[in-house]
Amino acid sequence: MPEYKAPVRDMRFLAEDVLDMQAHYQTLPNGEEATPDLVDAIISEGAKFAENVLAPLNRSGDEEGCHWLDGEVITPKGFKAAYQQYVAGGWQSLSHPPEYGGQGLPMSLGVMISEMAGTANWSWGMYPGLTLGAMNTLFLHGTEAQKQTWLMRMTSGEWSGTMCLTEPQCGTDLGQVKTRAIPNGDETYSLSGTKIFISAGEHDLTENIVHIVLARLPDAPEGTRGISLFIVPKFKVNPDGSLGERNGVSCGSLEHKMGIKASATCVMNFDEAEGYLIGPENKGLQCMFTFMNTARIGTGIQGLASAELAYQGALPYARERLSMRSLSGTKQPDNVADSLIVHPDVRRMLLTMKAFAEGGRAMLYDAAKLADRMITAETESERNRLDDELGMLTPILKGFLTEAGLESANLGVQVYGGHGYIREHGMEQIIRDARISTLYEGTTGIQSLDLLGRKVLLSKGKDLNRLAGQILKYCKSVLTDDSVPRLKVLPFVGKVSALTLRWQYLSYRLAFRAARNRDAVGSASVDYLMFSGYVVMAYYWLQMLVAAQRKLMEATSEVAFYKAKVQTAEFYFSRILPRAETHAKTMLACPRTLTRMKEESFAFL
Amino acid sequence: MPEYKAPVRDMRFLAEDVLDMQAHYQTLPNGEEATPDLVDAIISEGAKFAENVLAPLNRSGDEEGCHWLDGEVITPKGFKAAYQQYVAGGWQSLSHPPEYGGQGLPMSLGVMISEMAGTANWSWGMYPGLTLGAMNTLFLHGTEAQKQTWLMRMTSGEWSGTMCLTEPQCGTDLGQVKTRAIPNGDETYSLSGTKIFISAGEHDLTENIVHIVLARLPDAPEGTRGISLFIVPKFKVNPDGSLGERNGVSCGSLEHKMGIKASATCVMNFDEAEGYLIGPENKGLQCMFTFMNTARIGTGIQGLASAELAYQGALPYARERLSMRSLSGTKQPDNVADSLIVHPDVRRMLLTMKAFAEGGRAMLYDAAKLADRMITAETESERNRLDDELGMLTPILKGFLTEAGLESANLGVQVYGGHGYIREHGMEQIIRDARISTLYEGTTGIQSLDLLGRKVLLSKGKDLNRLAGQILKYCKSVLTDDSVPRLKVLPFVGKVSALTLRWQYLSYRLAFRAARNRDAVGSASVDYLMFSGYVVMAYYWLQMLVAAQRKLMEATSEVAFYKAKVQTAEFYFSRILPRAETHAKTMLACPRTLTRMKEESFAFL
């Protein structure tokens, strides 16, 4: 069974040797407080909380699940106490501004905490995670009064938040939203409708729940242009801030799911519930995007979490379980058999999980730097530029990393053989929990359309070319960097450069095709997304390889650690990156191989 | 929710247009009874049973699971009645010889029945499936008296069978088996030990259970050379055939598993249980191989079943669920949105499942022809040759098709989006049930070592070259076949020929490497297995393409059906087969990228 240990050494490697987080913090208006000592203390306290409080509740939470009784939801044993400890530790307020009760630390530090909490116990992490999304939405789009009323109490952790988008007839296609909001003549609205798949929609962790809800005003335009965003609290709030009467929103039932069973997934019924408009009328979807982008990067963290936990579960088993002899000769003559880890194919599986976890971590931490800068940007144009940069990466982080996480979760079970299928080992739970990650917050298909259709083609390659330019510039810089053993990194620099140029070339090819046939986008998009993911991860593995080679050249005292980084990088380049080749080829297959089959010809039963 | 319909039209296509099963039956000593009318009747009755009796119990069986009480196991509601109906229908005895109560029909017909039953309800199918394996073992290795006592009652379905190999300390590495068998001085032995993961080890479907058990005689050599095979019944049998006293074997508990919850997975405790030796002393493992090969091909069927059921579940949802508009213009103006199936990426997922299901079916049915011929072979050398031919295919059928099935199961959920994660839709169950298929009966890693290490390298490529020769000969024959529109198949013939030659080339490369470094085998094996799978499936898709083009040239009345075959074949070649490229590249990566990392360097926590 996986016993989570926060990968603090690896986090420190990224922060110090690869991404230079201290230098980054110092460029931020709110960064001066993030001193090395404080950051270390935060990470080590976060690690303790994740390891000692959250991890032990992961399997029990899965076995027990959430229970619904007359509209109330009971979370599994220990969840509430853990939540109270989390709030008392000030974790919920870490990255929000002091004027709203936060500690004003960089968002990127929050990502590290989210990673540790989420790897230890993804289901539990959903509750503060959704609250964070609601906080971000209110922070960016709420009025000052709304922030005082609602945001402050979420920052403090007293209240939690949700994101109410999906309805029975639509998830992806939010233009079909039917929930109605009728103005009451004062500042309030009366909301009626049904929302489904509402994570943390009802639970016993907090005294109030702040729902952020998409709904239509009367006479709103059809489709996505007629959707507005509302605050709908579980309990109304009196002018003095105390809780008033129960609002007209209630949990009709819980979904029975494959995994994340300790996360309450609710059907929420709005029956003339009192709500308050956030942002301008009919601009709800734009406002909600804030929420969705947070959630998408958060879901990318789930990909990393799945890979890390699967690896941490599989590694000790591979070391301890004795099976067969190494084909190249007995390795452990004193045992009845050699341990699994001597077998190359078991190592292939372990290293795949390891490479995805460490590569994903680097991608996410670097993206979090962009988010830090975007939040604190001083000009609108600077903010927009950073938003575009992050927007280019978001579908890759969400789409690619969750696919890699799901693959890793499956490999974790595979290392265990038949024992992986047994619940008590805790490995199959990782698959069940990970399985949602390629579905919610936009499926992999939706991420791929966002990437290729919107981010690449619609911007005429602007954001792609900026990212590609950055990668090529980095490659060039390595070649003239005397602190790096050039011959040892040269082949990898070459691979990353070549693939980056190919990425641009493939994008142009697809742009030409799409100009003639719009179906060329959807025919290529998932292969394009996966290709992009492998290339971007290669860029980060190159950076890690270079950083590790630099340390080895400096005669570090931690030779084993840095050698392992080099070896993992080389594994990634030789055994994972070749997959990009297939995606490159497949994305160029004729769209008609997908589109020409008649709908009625899909089956003759 | 998937509502299983047996794909009878597709089965008929294979039987009539591709594999010419009638001509095949007529070459078998036991084939004359398999007249077209009888075969049709059997398939249509099997389809009805699978659709009407087994399919409705699939989800309820998953929800209810098996229950253990004081050593007894209760199967889910309806399972026993279905089993009785199955036995009454004579299905258990279909392919066994009349002298042991069977109907003497070809084994390949049994595979079709197993496919339908297993797709409808894999958990239920495990009970007769394990019995079939026990029957095959007894038929090949039992004495005449043993066959009269034990085989006859399994053929009739009165009793069921199991396969007791795995112990807590070993699954794959059966040389570690510890269960002891002490001779009692008469023809009986006294067996003691613990077996785990015993499917159908205890249940309420039959009055007796015949366990086939691996155990060690006193003073047996260590390792795999000291293992013998025994019959251990749940109830002893009196000389008159009536049931005697309870034997010393009992079910200690049931495993809690990720899926196939309605299949009882038992811990079996043998406590001086009375047993009878099958086959020669210390040759148990060789005898057990009969069982394992049946089981491996049976598990290959699970890959097909997962792909088929996922497809059948996803297709109606893709047709009905309305989401977004087609990028190439509105397709269904009367609906609020277009249905999922208009989107190319959804079609990619559907066609992937379809191509795997139909391709897998062709591979399995053709392999079943080999099994038919092997069972009825008239000379030892003929039997051995066919055994080798089938042995080359077995790890591909098991290893590759189960991986394809698992991928398909995941795609089925993916088509549903978030709804796929909800239990009531029945799609996530397909993943949970399919997940075992790459683990039991030898993991994918073990299959890959069997393929590359044993079947290819140990035989110096004999069986590979025979298969490659057969494929190339077929390719050549197509080029001179006037009943086929040559230009329409030429590119595909070219691809299959080229990949087959590449397969041989890669095998030689790996053979040279392995001669220097045995770890080269395990470093390449899974990629080699997957490459082999894609190539072999391409060979079958070529045969289906050719057969369909022939029918189209003959001006068939079923143009839509045959066109869909052609289009699915072209999809396979353009969008699935390119994956072989990555596997070809990756299998040649240096083994040291896997082997050189020190065991202690895998983590620095």
UniProtKB/TrEMBL annotation, chains A, B:
<feature type="domain" description="Acetyl-CoA dehydrogenase-like C-terminal">
    <location>
        <begin position="488"/>
        <end position="597"/>
    </location>
</feature>
<dbReference type="Pfam" id="PF12806">
    <property type="entry name" value="Acyl-CoA_dh_C"/>
</dbReference>
<dbReference type="Pfam" id="PF00441">
    <property type="entry name" value="Acyl-CoA_dh_1"/>
</dbReference>
<dbReference type="Pfam" id="PF02771">
    <property type="entry name" value="Acyl-CoA_dh_N"/>
</dbReference>
<keyword id="KW-1133">Transmembrane helix</keyword>
<dbReference type="Pfam" id="PF02770">
    <property type="entry name" value="Acyl-CoA_dh_M"/>
</dbReference>
<dbReference type="InterPro" id="IPR052166">
    <property type="entry name" value="Diverse_Acyl-CoA_DH"/>
</dbReference>
<dbReference type="InterPro" id="IPR009100">
    <property type="entry name" value="AcylCoA_DH/oxidase_NM_dom_sf"/>
</dbReference>
<keyword id="KW-0812">Transmembrane</keyword>
<dbReference type="InterPro" id="IPR036250">
    <property type="entry name" value="AcylCo_DH-like_C"/>
</dbReference>
<keyword id="KW-0472">Membrane</keyword>
<dbReference type="InterPro" id="IPR037069">
    <property type="entry name" value="AcylCoA_DH/ox_N_sf"/>
</dbReference>
<dbReference type="InterPro" id="IPR006091">
    <property type="entry name" value="Acyl-CoA_Oxase/DH_mid-dom"/>
</dbReference>
<dbReference type="InterPro" id="IPR013786">
    <property type="entry name" value="AcylCoA_DH/ox_N"/>
</dbReference>
<feature type="transmembrane region" description="Helical">
    <location>
        <begin position="528"/>
        <end position="548"/>
    </location>
</feature>
<feature type="domain" description="Acyl-CoA dehydrogenase/oxidase C-terminal">
    <location>
        <begin position="282"/>
        <end position="449"/>
    </location>
</feature>
<feature type="domain" description="Acyl-CoA oxidase/dehydrogenase middle">
    <location>
        <begin position="163"/>
        <end position="272"/>
    </location>
</feature>
<dbReference type="InterPro" id="IPR009075">
    <property type="entry name" value="AcylCo_DH/oxidase_C"/>
</dbReference>
<protein>
    <submittedName>
        <fullName>Acyl-CoA dehydrogenase C-terminal domain-containing protein</fullName>
    </submittedName>
</protein>
<dbReference type="InterPro" id="IPR046373">
    <property type="entry name" value="Acyl-CoA_Oxase/DH_mid-dom_sf"/>
</dbReference>
<feature type="domain" description="Acyl-CoA dehydrogenase/oxidase N-terminal">
    <location>
        <begin position="45"/>
        <end position="158"/>
    </location>
</feature>
<keyword id="KW-0560">Oxidoreductase</keyword>
<comment type="similarity">
    <text>Belongs to the acyl-CoA dehydrogenase family.</text>
</comment>
<dbReference type="InterPro" id="IPR025878">
    <property type="entry name" value="Acyl-CoA_dh-like_C_dom"/>
</dbReference>
<keyword id="KW-0285">Flavoprotein</keyword>
<keyword id="KW-0274">FAD</keyword>
